[in-house]
Amino acid sequence: MIEVKNIHKSFGDNHVLKGISTIFERGKINLIIGKSGSGKTVFLKSIIGLHEIDKGEILYDNRTFSGTKTKFKKTIRKELGMVFQGGALFDSETVERNVMFPLEMFSDMSFEEQRERANFCLKKVNLLNANHLFPSEISGGMQKRVAIARAISLNPKYLFCDEPNSGLDPATSIVIDNLIKDISEEFDMTTIINTHDMNSVVEIGDKITYIHEGQKWWEGSNNDIFSSENKELNDFVFVSKKMKLMMKRK
Amino acid sequence: MKPYFRQIIKEIYKIGISSIGIVIIISVFMGAVITLQTAYNFTSAIIPRYLIGVGARDSMLLEFSSTMVGLILAGKVGSNIASELGTMRVTEQIDALEIMGINSAGYLILPKIIAIVFFNPFLCMISMFVGIGGGYAIALFTESVTPENFILGIRAFFIPFYITYSIIKTILFAFIIASVSAYQGYFVKGGAIEVGKASTRAVVYSSILILLFNLILTNLLLG
Question: Is the N end or the C end of chain B the one with fewer CB atoms within 10 Å?
Answer without folding.
Answer: N
